Structures are given as structure tokens and as C-alpha cells.
Amino acid sequence: MQVAPSETVALNSYSPELRQQLFQYVLQLADTSLILGHRLSEWCGHGPILEQDLAMANIALDLLGETRSLYQYAAELEGQDRTEDDLAFLRLAVEYKNPLLVEQPNGDFGDTVARQFLFDNFHYHFLLQLKASPDERLAAIAEKAVKEAAYHLKWSSEWMIRLGDGTEESRQRLDKALGNLWRYSGELTTPTAAEKALQATGIIPDYAGLLPKMEAHLNHVFQEATLPVPQGVFMMTGGKEGRHTEHLGYILAELQYMQRTYPGMRW
Amino acid sequence: MVAKAPTEERIWQLLEEVSDPEVPVLSILDLGIVRGVKVDGEQVTVSITPTYSGCPAMNTIATDIRLRLLAEGIPNVTIHNQLSPAWTTDWMSQAGREKLEAYGIAPPVDGTATGHVLNLFGKDTAVRCPLCKSDHTHLVSQFGSTACKAHYQCDDCHEPFDYFKCHA
Fold first, then answer.
1. What is the ipTM of this complex?
2. Which among B53, B120, B145 has the least Cβ separation from residue A145?
3. How far is B48 from chain A (nearest CA, A)?
4. Contact A74, A25 (CB under 8 A)
5. pTM score, two decimals?
């Protein structure tokens, strides 16, 4: 890693408790982008057409860039000897705090588009708010990432509409994808106890404030896609507290293989 | 080699000679990613900002800056990665825009950033073909050969080309 991290914000102004809370939360954000970025990168060379293969690889790259900024900040917040690489590659599945949605398998292109849309709709609106965080570092990361998230949301929204209002088969597949993935969408905006504590400090946005804009965009896209918005589905949660679906372990087995086999290996 | 303390002006001159590894016709100054130079005795600090969060060229650019300055006998260099304010194509120089077009990449059309995500299937930005200069072109994909470029095709000469996206 050749580039020094950005100038440090006044980390010392946080109490040790708050600093620890923030560390856990920044890790959660980093894990989320890492796991979804990794999932998208699995499409590389397998996309339905070249342009969409490139689109997914580009989105993966944006997410990995965001993830590095977050892990670097997390490492500083922790203040131990761990680096961004240690945090990304040497933790166990139960220590990962990503929501369940992003670890779900790629499935077919419809599954990937549905997963991406549900995430992007949260991510974009969340980053817009995080830009205003009093934590300068989080605000700077969000300011950078939100411009990219806007491209992602446009891409996944348009594909939702193309597939939903497309052929009989594309509609059926997207409908099936939503039937499977919708249950994981609620976790994104359901705060854990740890998130509630941070929201109370004003450092991170209250998710309730995001919901009206997220719903408006989602309703617009579903209407254009001629899809009914699923109702009354029981929402699965737990990922943000380390309780994952079976899929995460397999992702980590591949993602961490090199560091586990050759500890301390550098690029 | 005994080095004189470098001046800021000299550092800026040297940085003009460092090119973007992915678009080699552009210097990193043309691209607008150098956000500041500070000289404190023999210690030089150069602040750079990524175009996109995941830009894989950042490490290479940092190395190239170090090597260029080292070649002038300036070994004490710190490279700061500055995220805010976030990079925008507004910072790309006029000379840079002309070099891009001559190289075959359409330069950013200002004021067309994709901030309006609700404007789905909106009209494509009108981009001039860098090869035959026709305005009859269409967007193939927002995502091109690198994060900062979209993929277009000319309807007159039919050549596919890269468009450096407006990012504001």
C-alpha cells in the first residue's frame, strides 16, 4: 500500500466507548461493500453480454474502493496493529457484520439485478445522508461513494424495468428472484441496538428518515417494471450481528484463501 | 547526490511530467487529481485524490510521483490520499480535454453528471465522436473500459469509442 491514509480527523475527541462503537460500525459498512463487491466480481467473464459483464465488474470495483477507504478508517479507529488487509482477510464469518442480502448467491442475472437494486436503493439514499455526518472521515468517504452509487442505482433500476416489463421468461425469473430476496431487504433499514446507539449520537443517519425516498423510488421502479411490490413478508435479520446464512462461509473460504495459506503475503 | 531544498514551483513542474497510467496522454495535472503540494525543508507532501473510489491506478500514480521526484534527488516524499472534496471532471484542464479528444476519447460534457437517478432511460448525453466529429452517437453502456469512462458508438462512422464521463 503506497498511498498514506488521509489526514486524520480528531479521533481523540471520541470517548473510548464511542470509538469502539464507531469501529464496529465502520467494519459493518466495509464488510457490506466487500461481500457485495466480491459477489459481483464472480460474474467477471460470465456476464450475459460483454457490456453487462463490464458493468458488474465496474460496480464491483467501485464497491471495493469504498471498502478499502472504510477498512483503513476502521484500522485507525481500532488503533491496534491491524491493517486493512487483516480486517478484510483474517476475520471469521461470525465477525463479519454485513447484512444477509449482500451474501446471497448470484443465481441468474435476474437474481443479481434484484439483489443489486434492493441494495443500491438503500446505499444511494444512505450515502446521501452520511455525507452530512459530523464525522469528517465518514462524510468524505460518503461524498466520494455517493456519486458512484448513483450510477449503480440507475443501472439496477433500469434493468429491473427491462426484465420486469420484458419477456415472459425475464419477468418470471425476476419475480422468482424477488420472491427469494425480498425477505432480506428489511434488514438494511432495521437498526440493531449498536446502530441505534450511534444514531442517537447523530454520527450516522436515522434509517427512518431514508424510508420515504427509498419507497418512492422503489414504487416508481416496480410500477414501470409492472411488478407488484411484495407485501407482508417476514423479514430475516441477523447478518449485521454476525448471524449469517450458510453462504458467507463459502465466500470467505475463497476470499481469504490466499492470506490463510500464505499469511502476511503482499501484492 | 546532494539535493538542494526543492521549491513548490519545481515540484509542480515535475508533476506535469507524470502521466496517468491508463490514459497516458494526460498528465496527472491535466486530470486534476493533484490537490496540493507542500514543501517543508526537504520534506515534500503531495496530495492526490482518486477519480473513482476503486481507481486501480492510484498506487501506480503514487509510485510514479515518487520515482519522478527521486530522479531529481528528492527522496523525502509523502503522498496523501485526499477524499474530500471529491474529484470532479470540472478539475480537468482545457489542455487535457483537447489531448483526450486527439487521443480518441471524447472529453466530458460539463453539466451532464448522472445525479438524477430517478431519470431512468433518460436521453443519452450528446457526445461528439472523437474520430469523425459527428454528433450522431449513442450510449452503449454507462460502464466502459475503466470506471471513469462510458462506452459510446458513432452512428455515422460506426466506430465504438470511450467517453470520459462528466462526474460532478
1. 0.88
2. B53
3. 9
4. no
5. 0.92
